[in-house]
Amino acid sequence: QVQLVESGGGPVQPGGSLRLSCAASGIIFSAYDMGWYRQAPGKQRELVASITSRGGTKYADFVKGRFTISRDNPTNMVSLRMNGLKAEDTAVYYCHVERVGVGVEYWGQGTQVTVSS
Question: pLDDT at position 47, please?
Answer without folding.
Answer: 98
